[in-house]
Amino acid sequence: xxxxxxxxxxxxxxxxxxxxxxxxxxxxxxxxxxxxxxxxxxxxxxxxxxxxxxxxxxxxxxxxxxxxxxxxxxxxxxxxxxxxxxxxxxxxxxxxxxxxxxxxxxxxxxxxxxxxxxxxxxxxxxxxxxxxxxxxxxxxxxxxxxxxxxxxxxxxxxxxxxxxxxxxxxxxxxxxxxxxxxxxxxxxxxxxxxxxxxxxxxxxxxxxxxxxxxxxxxxxxxxxxxxxxxxxxxxxxxxxxxxxxxxxxxx
Length: 251
Description:
This protein is mainly alpha-helical. Helix 6 crosses helix 7.
């Protein structure tokens, strides 16, 4: 009958559409199941038209245990030879390293650790101490007691003072040195000999400290060279020409 023929055509068309849908879209089976208006027996008969499919078995995944992983890492480490070795950081020693200025004679004092001492020990047995009448205010005590103190020592034979300090004393305190080479200091500010003697020794220490430090070598500014002056003139000419070209042109 016509109804059976129409049903067979419809079923064959549905099977062709189903195969085409399976080829392009794996999820079309659920969509066709919901959309086809066929009976349960007819839908089961359509499975006969499906081609045979090969079953894909997923590969088995093996997980390494802790012991096996450690053994594998140990074997890899034995085969691998490191190209460098870790060395911990060591900070440099404190203090600034002196520069090597052996060829520079002008800065011969900059390579040593020369410092001015806080207290200079003065051997009093190598000093010549004399007393005299003090001048100025003081009343009858000035006329009766020799309170003025004078300290003297031979500067060239004073081995307790470094040689370079003695040379600076000769240059800085030349008015305190007589023709025989004796360095003299006087003190008469106080009323007793003991106080004036302490004050004179303190003055001597201050003078030694002022001459103990090594002087800094100052470099004078030499100014520009001839080439630098010529370059400066050329740059000024270029700048003037550039500014002149910016002026308004009168036609």
